[in-house]
């Protein structure tokens, strides 16, 4: 072989149509030339077929290779590899490795010029396998003088670095060996390694390579030009950037930034922000990404760069973005930026902050002292003490002070949190005071008490009389009444079995359903349908003993009784009509065959009776006595008195008008103006929370407000919550009353505005969902929790005590739609409660602390106009709760003062 065979290689841009194998066969095996050219043509066809799966193409070519003479194999496989350049490094690398393996296995002659040029072609294309690096270096050393071999290695690695392929982890060791063999030592090795890394972009760089480079460049520092390139590497892959940053420090690149000799592309702020963006999150071996601590060296570097970062000007530093979907602050990095006096972009409180706890490397003093970010840090640290999941209901004691002792900024924020809770105990609603006391009992551990001067005095200087007064003046749920319904409850209690007698506040009642304005109350064997003014109908029936859930719906004077025997059911599947008990059937639609169970089972309870009182709207049709179509799940309904619109929970489609008598769908009709759009353009209409209905003629007014014979509520929301759940609401009643409300816990969406009896029009109470599916919570618009009332349970929602820290008020909460029908129990008594003076609250509290007899006597004296036994029990219950809360306050004060004395300095 007198001439180099490197002329057989394609150009870098023509590798995808390489004919190296066919050209070699033409010159060296003419008898096989035709077959070789056919095989090369087949390569093109097969690669087109497997373009999206190039590994399959390599497998196919391996089958073809088995039929080839050994001398043909290197040329065949190199041609396969050429055509795979640009299809990812791995398939082409398999082909390259197969070619070299064939040369070694069959002891074939190798043309040095061809081997060097071919390796360079693969290296430029990013298809050189890392495991072939050592073999190629040995080949260069065996076929060239040391200096020439080192120069060839320089060219080879430069091409590799410019390709998409990752660099080999042992690059530094092999470069040092090559430089040493060439008689040039570590100075030359540092030059080449530095220049190679300085041009590395958009690829993974092994930590082992960077660690070795750091050791080499520490004693052989690169020029500022090379240092500028090193600062632009930003290694990709599953790394925190720490190895790269330590290499930059060792090489003097960061020192060059600090001195101003080197300015990275985009400026210092861009460089720091990009580091955070790249490495806040990392890909995980099991899939997805997760947050990770940033290297401690970054925080130290930010502080050293502080003067230049401040002087650079331009936009504030951005340290909350990532290269993935997520955003967030690393508390350590944010603290370093603020400690350096660098202005940071504030994306708003919805962006999370990560506190690393025991893994934190900073005291976070600067962050805690910041007027904007300090409160968010306290919230973040406080959240680490809360239950972490649905199954974890335990809250760890202590505060952010417990986790960050000695941090004055944190102590100030915790003091503000504690002061707010103490104020709630003193002048909040009764339920809010109970929650606040539970919170204080957990918050005030030893470290927190030591850090908060004056907490003992604050607790000693208050009592719960103010809370008692606010509860009485703000309105009690017992002030609302439905006499006909209460009589039904009494009748059910009289017939309750011994087992049912102890089952909650309504013995014998299993649940309720809605045919608005008719409420159906049902038990195991009987049901009664009651309208605002009278009982409509009643019936008796037999439910199978093995029924796991049952429901009864009033329909035009009759009752649809349904049940199921399936374990853990979502709905009933068998039904009878009460007047045909021997004719069970399977309804066509069963989605709505459920007892009222909250917003997901029964919506708000606005499922309307037909205009002729002879049927029940069920969304996609009307059910009349004897019908077997059942009840579907389109439970959301609106009515302006002439048109009815239907929708379904989570359906996300427009409200559909239906005929008021037939239930058939009609042409789309716009909703009434009141429900068409929010008055605040920054908010979104809560489509599924809209409420509108004609008030029954038997009622003079609604506690939720009326206008032109209609009652209802429009709800809008704004989603600033980090978990994409609405948290800011605007509630607007049909009578013009409005209130803005921000929830402090997930899932407790507000649904109406209540003006308590005899209250001023602007004295509005927000009614919202509670922790239980059918419960109701009442708040003032500023978020003060006044009371909580449990709703009806059902076979689908058995009575399981929730984890909460309030005593529920008396009575049972109705579905929201029926609150619009309630009336004032006693106007004179409500008038007296609205005007409760401070002295009366003090007297009631003192009496409640003394005895039940004293409390009854005080109620007689202070509220002589309250004669209704329900209201008297309600006032007494609130006073007793205030007394219990005050006893808890005094116990907590004693615990704190005892701790303070125990921790105080010893007497001389």
Summed up, what is this model?
With 908 residues, the chain is of the alpha+beta class.
What do you see in this structure?
The protein is of the alpha+beta class. The protein contains 33 helices and 28 strands. The strands form nine sheets. Strands 19, 20, 21, 22 and 23 form a five-stranded antiparallel β-sheet that branches. Helix 3 runs antiparallel to helix 4, helix 7 packs antiparallel against helix 8 and helix 22 runs parallel beside helix 33. The longest helix is centred in the last third of the chain and has 35 residues. The mean pLDDT is 92.
Layout: helices, strands, pairs:
Layout: H1 20-28, H2 33-49, H3 54-65, H4 73-84, H5 89-105, H6 112-124, H7 133-143, H8 146-162, H9 171-181, H10 185-198, H11 207-219, H12 224-230, H13 242-251, H14 253-259, H15 268-279, E1 281-283, E2 289-291, H16 296-312, E3 329-330, H17 331-339, E4 353-354, H18 365-369, H19 373-383, H20 400-403, H21 408-427, H22 430-443, H23 446-451, H24 455-460, H25 465-474, E5 480-481, H26 483-495, H27 498-501, E6 511-515, E7 518-522, E8 526-530, E9 535-540, E10 549-555, E11 558-564, E12 574-577, E13 580-585, E14 616-617, E15 622-623, E16 636-639, E17 644-647, E18 656-658, H28 673-676, E19 684-685, E20 691-694, E21 710-718, E22 728-733, E23 738-742, E24 750-754, E25 765-769, E26 776-779, E27 785-789, H29 816-819, E28 823-824, H30 827-834, H31 838-850, H32 852-862, H33 869-903
Parallel strand pairs: 3-4
Antiparallel strand pairs: 1-2, 5-28, 6-7, 7-8, 8-9, 10-11, 11-12, 12-13, 14-15, 16-17, 17-18, 19-21, 20-21, 21-22, 22-23, 24-25, 25-26, 26-27
Helix pairs in contact: 1-2, 1-4, 2-3, 2-4, 3-4, 4-5, 6-8, 7-8, 8-9, 9-10, 10-12, 11-13, 16-17, 19-21, 21-22, 21-25, 22-33, 25-31, 25-33, 31-32, 31-33
């Amino acid at each position: 072989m007198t001439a180099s065979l490197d002329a057989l290689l394609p150009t870098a841009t023509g590798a995808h149509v390489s004919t190296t194998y066919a050209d070699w066969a033409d010159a060296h095996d003419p008898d096989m030339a035709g077959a070789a050219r056919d095989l090369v043509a087949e390569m093109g066809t097969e690669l087109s077929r497997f373009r999206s799966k190039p590994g399959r193409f390599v497998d196919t070519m391996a089958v073809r290779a088995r039929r080839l003479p050994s001398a043909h194999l290197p040329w065949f496989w190199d041609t396969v590899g050429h055509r795979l350049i640009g299809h990812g490094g791995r398939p082409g690398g398999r082909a390259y490795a197969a070619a070299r393996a064939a040369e070694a296995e069959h002891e074939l002659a190798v043309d040095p010029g061809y081997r060097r040029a071919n390796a360079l072609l693969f290296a430029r294309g990013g298809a050189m396998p890392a495991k072939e690096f050592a073999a190629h270096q040995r080949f260069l050393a065996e076929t060239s003088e040391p200096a020439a071999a080192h120069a060839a290695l320089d060219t080879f690695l430069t091409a590799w670095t410019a390709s998409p392929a990752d660099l080999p982890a042992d690059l530094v060791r092999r470069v040092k060996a090559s430089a040493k063999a060439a008689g040039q030592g570590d100075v030359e090795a540092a030059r080449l390694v530095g220049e190679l890394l300085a041009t590395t972009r958009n690829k993974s760089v092994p930590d082992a390579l960077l660690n070795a480079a750091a050791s080499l460049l520490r004693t052989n520092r690169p020029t500022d030009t090379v240092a500028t390139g090193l600062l632009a590497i930003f290694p990709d892959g599953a790394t925190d950037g720490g190895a790269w940053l330590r290499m930059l420090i060792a090489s003097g690149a960061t020192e060059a930034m600090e001195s101003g000799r080197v300015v990275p592309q985009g400026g210092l702020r861009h460089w720091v922000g990009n580091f955070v963006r790249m490495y806040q999150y990392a890909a995980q071996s099991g899939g997805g990404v997760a947050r990770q601590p940033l290297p401690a060296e970054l925080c130290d570097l930010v502080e050293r760069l502080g003067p230049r970062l401040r002087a650079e000007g331009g936009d504030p530093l951005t340290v909350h973005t990532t290269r993935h979907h997520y955003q967030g602050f690393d508390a350590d990095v944010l603290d370093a930026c603020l400690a350096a006096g660098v202005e940071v972009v504030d994306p708003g409180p919805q962006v999370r902050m990560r506190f690393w706890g025991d893994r934190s490397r900073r005291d976070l003093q600067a962050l805690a002292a910041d007027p904007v970010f300090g409160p968010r840090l306290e919230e973040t640290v406080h959240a680490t003490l809360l239950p972490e999941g649905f199954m974890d209901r335990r809250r760890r004691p202590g505060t952010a002070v417990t986790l960050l002792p000695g941090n004055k900024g944190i102590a100030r924020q915790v003091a503000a949190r504690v002061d707010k809770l103490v104020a709630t105990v003193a002048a909040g609603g009764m339920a809010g005071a109970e929650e606040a006391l539970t919170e204080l009992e957990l918050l005030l551990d030893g470290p927190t008490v030591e850090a908060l001067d004056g907490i003992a005095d604050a607790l000693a200087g208050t009592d719960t009389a103010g809370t008692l007064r606010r509860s009485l003046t703000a309105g009690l749920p017992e002030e609302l009444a439905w006499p006909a319904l209460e009589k039904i409850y009494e009748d059910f209690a009289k017939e309750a079995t011994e087992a049912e007698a102890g089952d909650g506040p309504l013995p014998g009642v299993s649940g309720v359903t809605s045919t608005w304005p008719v409420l159906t109350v049902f038990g195991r064997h009987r049901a009664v349908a009651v309208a605002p003014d009278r009982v409509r109908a009643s019936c008796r029936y037999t439910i199978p003993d093995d029924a796991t859930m049952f429901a009864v719906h009033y329909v035009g004077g009759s009752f649809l009784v349904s049940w199921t025997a399936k374990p853990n059911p979502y709905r009933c599947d068998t039904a009878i009509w009460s007047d045909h008990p021997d004719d069970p059937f399977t309804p066509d639609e069963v989605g709505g065959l459920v007892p009222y169970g909250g917003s997901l089972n029964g919506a708000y309870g606005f499922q309307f009776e037909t205009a002729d009182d002879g049927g029940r709207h069920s969304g996609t049709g009307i059910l009349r006595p004897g019908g077997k179509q059942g009840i579907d799940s389109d439970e959301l309904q609106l009515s302006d008195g002439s048109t009815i619109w239907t929708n379904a929970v989570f359906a996300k489609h427009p409200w559909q008008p239906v005929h008021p008598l037939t239930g058939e769908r009609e042409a789309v009709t716009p909703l009434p103006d009141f429900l068409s759009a929010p008055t605040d353009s920054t908010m979104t209409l809560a489509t599924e929370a809209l409420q509108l209905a004609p008030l029954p003629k038997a009622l003079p007014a609604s506690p939720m407000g009326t206008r032109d014979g209609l009652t209802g509520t429009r709800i809008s929301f704004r989603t600033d919550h980090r978990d994409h759940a609405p948290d800011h609401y605007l509630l607007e009643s049909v009578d013009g009353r409005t209130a803005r409300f921000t929830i402090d816990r997930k899932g407790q969406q507000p649904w109406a505005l209540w003006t308590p009896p005899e209250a001023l029009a602007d004295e509005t109470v927000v009614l919202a969902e509670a922790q239980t599916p059918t419960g109701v919570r009442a708040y003032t618009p500023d978020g003060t929790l006044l009371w909580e009332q449990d709703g009806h349970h059902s076979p689908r929602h058995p009575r399981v005590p929730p984890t909460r820290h309030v005593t529920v008020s008396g009575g049972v909460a109705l579905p929201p739609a029926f609150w619009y029908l309630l009336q004032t129990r006693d106007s004179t008594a409500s008038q007296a409660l609205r005007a409760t003076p401070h002295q009366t609250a003090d007297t009631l509290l003192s009496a409640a602390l003394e005895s039940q007899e004293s409390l009854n006597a005080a109620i007689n004296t202070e509220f002589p106009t309250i004669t209704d036994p329900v209201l008297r029990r309600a006032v007494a219950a609130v006073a007793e709760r205030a007394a219990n809360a005050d006893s808890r306050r005094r116990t907590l004060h004693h615990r704190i003062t005892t701790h303070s004395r125990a921790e105080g300095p010893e007497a001389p």
